[in-house]
Write a structure and sequence with these properties.
eight-stranded parallel β-barrel, hydrolase, Glyco_hydro_1, single chain, GH_1_N_CS, binds 6-O-phosphono-beta-D-glucopyranose, glycosidase, two-stranded parallel ribbon, Glyco_hydro_1_AS, TIM Barrel
Length: 479
Amino acid sequence: MGFPDNFLWGGATAANQCEGGYNQGGRGLANVDVIPTGPDRRAVITGKRKMLNFDDEYFYPAKDAIDMYTHFKEDIALFAEMGFKTYRLSIAWSRIFPNGDEEVPNEEGLQFYQDIFQECHKFNIEPLVTITHFDCPIHLIKEYGGWRNRKMIGFYEKLCRTLFTRYQGLVKYWLTFNEINMILHAPFLGAGLTFEHGENEEQIKYQAAHHELVASAIATKIAHEIDPQNQVGCMLAAASYYPYSCNPKDVWESKQSDRGNYFFIDVQSRGVYPPYARKMLAKKGIKIEQTKEDLEIIKAHTVDFISFSYYASRVAASEDSNVQKTEGNLFPTIKNPYLESSEWGWQIDPLGLRITMNDLYDRYQKPLFIVENGLGAVDIPDENGIVNDDYRIAYLRAHIKAMKDAIDEDGVVLLGYTSWGCIDLVSAGTGEMKKRYGYIYVDRDNEGRGTLERGRKKSFYWYKQVIASNGEKLSCNEL
Ligand code: BG6
């Protein structure tokens, strides 16, 4: 019992949070480049404040990030040293199509990822590729309005066809859209959406989501056509909602909140807009323009597996309940009095991972893949330059234990686990460097100062042991 022999242990990153090199190799500008740190970040991420160019008053952490653009060989060698079986990374769309609507891709960008994939295979690391991780060429936003425009489906299709063709034999695991449900909470980040005063934002978000859902189904179709070995997954920012109390009103609220997230992967995995979603949209007065062909393609090309991120559980309450709020992944949630929180207020709940896994597996009966999980924390190297991150080890250990329980006790099928930010990178939510998730420390601070030197944290050695023992040795005793 325990983890299956071919279990895919590894780590995850996203192009915009680690690559840097924003203007190198023919890369075009993207939404993720022009999101600054500081108090205006949230307004930009949510599309309330339009920022489509750099402004000298602000600092933009994604421009250089941790410069994986030039360090990738060193970084992959470190992943290999930990024994990674897989490495989840994302493609920067504007490296492949700098404007997004060209006919011919940028060879330098294509070669860059080819080099990365070949480097991975040198160490028997299977790449797991997110086609878009919060990433959209700025030209597509300026010219077409991002995913609100149906034409985006065609641009995305061209991107996918290019990737599947070029990387055939090098990549077989693909994710179409990172945390697709985040379009509701972070529409500029998730879909390049900005809003004019007085616009019906929900209408625009759900229409854009429909375009992404059709694009995802088309991608799944072509991935399978180009290479039947390809496995395509959806990707949800998951975490089941708990009712704040056993008051049926709270229970109902938690069900509604779960459905708000499930909607996206219900479509991607079951191939239909669920009845509750149709009713919900009608009630809100939202009318989605969709064709018969859209619905046919969604129906015919469902995903092979369900991938998700999980950091913390969530709580829902009816208006009658008197609750306190705390921070969570990209948006606040209700504070759960039974849980401790991270330094950023995210609630720590390993059993919540087992609950979420069971909920997803019960619902879809497709293999799961945990593609993000981890603890964002402040790391302070000691006098020898080592980060003794026992807090991170404790978090990860408890979550891996919960995964094991879900597999052993509940029969959930899990393909792999890629913990988030296996190397320190820029935080998506805050833009900070000091919110670190990595096994590998990167010398860089919030203002972009530092040598970029990489160093192994205590958790590096711990995770190496976890992988070598296929999840059996979770304690630090033998380090
Ligand atoms: C997920 C994203 O929402 O959470 C990642 O897919 C992100 O891009 C991660 O970095 C952790 O969030 P944060 O805000 O701590 O970086």
